[in-house]
Amino acid sequence: MAPTAQPTILSPSELSYLYTSLSLNPPIRPDARSPTSFRPLVAETDLLPTANGSARLCFADGTEAIVGVKGEVERTGGVGKQIGIREDDVEMGGIEGEEGTGGAGGEDWWVEVTVDMPGQRDDDAMVVFLAQMIHEGLVADGGLRARLVINRRWHWRLYIDILLLSPPHTYPLPLLSLTAHLALLSTCLPAPVAGLEKDDDPIFNDDWDAAIPLYPSTPPSSKAKANLSAARPPITLLVISVGDNIFFDPSHAELAVADAVVAVTVASSPSSTDDLNLLAVRTIDPPSRLSSSAAEMGQAVEEGAWKPKKGGMSRTVLRKMVGMCVARGGVGEEVLGGLEGFT
């Protein structure tokens, strides 16, 4: 489990009032949003001229992120050094199947994610977790890795650089994930003109107008690639529970009184009639667990003051959280549909 941002500085009375408001039926959020509503946002794509794909997304609170995607051609034969296979065997065709191509769907390390946050070191726990969480979602279903295969000897390697432009007002995982989603949707790779056979060196068209989208909007003619065209990059949603209520896109104050915080990664299914695919679920320590309560510090707790809930969440609550994300017509589908309007 990874921690959220620093605890919110609110008095016990304020925390108690906030928790009570969020526990009501129907609940009352501080900004009057419904439990499944997201904060207003603005976004744009293709803003970095030297990148294969890019996007900028800004929430109404001023938190802003930019993502750039760069593609680089690499020899798949280098995998042999990492998995104990002789490079000569790979080059001469002695290794077939998964070893020869880095797996039929590619390798996880073909996608590299880096996160840069103001005031944070590259090896800080939050930065490392955010990068790992986004990377985990991107490679979970194998769809992105399969797109990076050129032929048996060559592949694309993607470098996804995520920059948070200002200190986050709340946990930035959804912001970074949605921005990366838009950047990948706008990513185009040079079109190959030769070298698609398994032993040939690829040659690419240098006309950028002929570049091929990484996630094409129209299905290709090949049935073997049909499932790839239907998929879209995954997104990670931040979900909290307060009492019996479930909330999406929580604010910093709402995180402070959350009973449980879960990051749910979903992606579209090859069939539009199916529910979304669940790719990953991670529990996150809410701010209340990062600081000791007054009772634990030996101080008296005033009657009516809010105290952090002890223990984990029930399976029923977790099942409800995930169900609201992946169900047909649910929150995940609504968010994915809304992001399509920015591309």
Automatic annotation (TrEMBL):
Gene Ontology cellular-component annotations: cytoplasmic exosome (RNase complex); nuclear exosome (RNase complex); nucleolus
Protein name, UniProt field: Ribosomal RNA-processing protein 42
Source superkingdom: Eukaryota
Keywords, alphabetical: Cytoplasm, Exosome
Record organism: Lepraria neglecta
Family named by the database record: Belongs to the RNase PH family.
GO biological process: one example: U1 snRNA 3'-end processing
GO molecular function, one term: mRNA 3'-UTR AU-rich region binding
Places the protein is found: Cytoplasm; Nucleus, Nucleolus
Major localization listed first in the record, in broad terms: cytoplasm
Family matches, as InterPro entries: Exosome_comp_Rrp42_subfam, PNPase/RNase_PH_dom_sf, Ribosomal_Su5_D2-typ_SF
SUPFAM superfamilies for this protein: Ribosomal protein S5 domain 2-like
